[in-house]
Amino acid sequence: MIELSTVIQQLRRELGAAVDAAASERLRFELGPIELEVTVAVTEEGGAQGKVKFWVVELGGDLKDTHATTQRIKLTLQPTVAGSSEPPHVSGTAGAGER
């Protein structure tokens, strides 16, 4: 399982690379709302400062040794570029090693 925050951080990196690639492209695509649907396992840690964590369940993931409840959640993310009121634009070009 992967923490939900890690999935969102990786998505941010990938989108950042696509925005960077768009700077030199003649044809770009405006980036609109992103819908991310994942199956998450919700775990709770006990103690004085108990925490609830959301873990993204990988395909074929096995929860047999974990006491968790799984739920499907859908997040709608509205990407923006810091310091800009313009919507971000991305390129359709894959980066090195991405095909």
From TrEMBL:
Q: Spell out the residue ranges making up region: Disordered.
A: 80-99
Instruction: Tell me the InterPro entries matching this sequence.
Output: Trypco2
Q: Which domain of life is it from?
A: Bacteria
Give start and end of each Trypsin-co-occurring domain: 2-79
Name of the featured protein: Trypsin-co-occurring domain-containing protein
- Organism name: Actinomadura miaoliensis
Its taxonomic path starts at:
Bacteria, Bacillati, Actinomycetota, Actinomycetes, Streptosporangiales
